Amino acid sequence: MGNLCSLFAPPKPIKKRRPITKRQPSVPRSSSGPRNRIRSSSTRDNKFEDTILFGQQNSGDAGSLPFDRSASQRYPVSGSKKNQLPRSSSTRSRSSTDPLLQPHQFLSKGIKLDDLETNHFILIHGGGFGAWCWYKTIALLEEDGFKVTAIDLAGCGINSFNINSIASLSQYVKPLTNVLEKLPTGEKVILVGHDFGGACTSYAMELFPSKISKAVFLAAAMLTNGQSTLDMFSLQAGQNDLMREAQIFIYTNGNEHTPTAIDLEKSLLKDLLFNQSPSKDVALASVSMRSIPFAPVLEKLSLSDSNYGSVRRYYIETLEDNAIPVTLQENMINSSPPEKVYRLKGADHAPFFSKPQALHKFLLEIARIKDSHR
């Protein structure tokens, strides 16, 4: 989930408090101890409760450290508008129906799928989501003749893995790497990563650069070498009270240990994630979202210029996003500039719900970009 948490604070004396205990059917109780759920708040006694999103840093100047820019910077940005990244915007008025493209408009323009480097999209959901969130995007792409694979990462959607036992990013993204490993020799795909799925996308780019034609970061964590999702989101500590209020930390192994997962308060989902989305999609999400594994958020990525840096990157900004604010999206873009930036006006943190047609248009535009543009 976007803007998941902030840096750990140094240990504090622990006062006993009565934890809030709730049960969620989708996440079983661990044999190692009770599954305690503790809501984020501005005051707390447990040392791990200070790992909230955008919480105060008490461990030095870590929050003010500059980005370690990725060696993959092939498109530097200067202060001059003439040299800034190319950007494309959706300029329509806000509408839940999002009437932009008609089915098959892509093919009706005389564009042949066989002329593209690839006609295969792989969609990677964000934290707490699942493959189900892409249902509109899948339908639109398939109507235009594309092949679409939507991944359920470990413990998400219909994947039965226990979220609370996920100990690494590699374990979390195993369903994605399994698909990439099985691609026929010479076949390439376009990866689209949303939210925390951006970190998963970067991980896959480093492992399988020859199998990835392009990578699209959709309101996503676009990390630099040596950076974790935790590091990146901590740079805007203290600026997202809504996310902090929504978070509920899960301590399957006991409150004295690191949280194993994060839940989000369902009553706050609409304001946080779906403030521009149709009510039927909010209802779908409210019964489908699952916990977010905590360990992968802490993991620092190793991204090289020869692998990760060789894959063409694109970023799609969501301008009405309450989970990953535009300022943070811009921060990531400026720290490691992609080839091009697209802007979705009227899109919340779930553009596949709030602006499916505009998102579809941008994905088609990216698919059409030829090798010679590089």
Automatic annotation (TrEMBL):
Keywords: Hydrolase. Transmembrane segments: none annotated. GO terms for molecular function: carboxylic ester hydrolase activity. Residues 119-356 form the AB hydrolase-1 domain. Residues 87-97 have a biased composition (Low complexity). Residues 1-101 are annotated as: Disordered. Coiled coil: none annotated. InterPro entries: AB_hydrolase_1, AB_hydrolase_fold, MES/HNL. Residues 27-41, 70-86 have a biased composition (Polar residues). PANTHER family: GENOME ASSEMBLY, CHROMOSOME: A02, METHYLESTERASE FAMILY MEMBER. This is AB hydrolase-1 domain-containing protein. It comes from Eruca vesicaria subsp. sativa (Garden rocket). The lineage of its organism: Eukaryota, Viridiplantae, Streptophyta, Embryophyta, Tracheophyta.
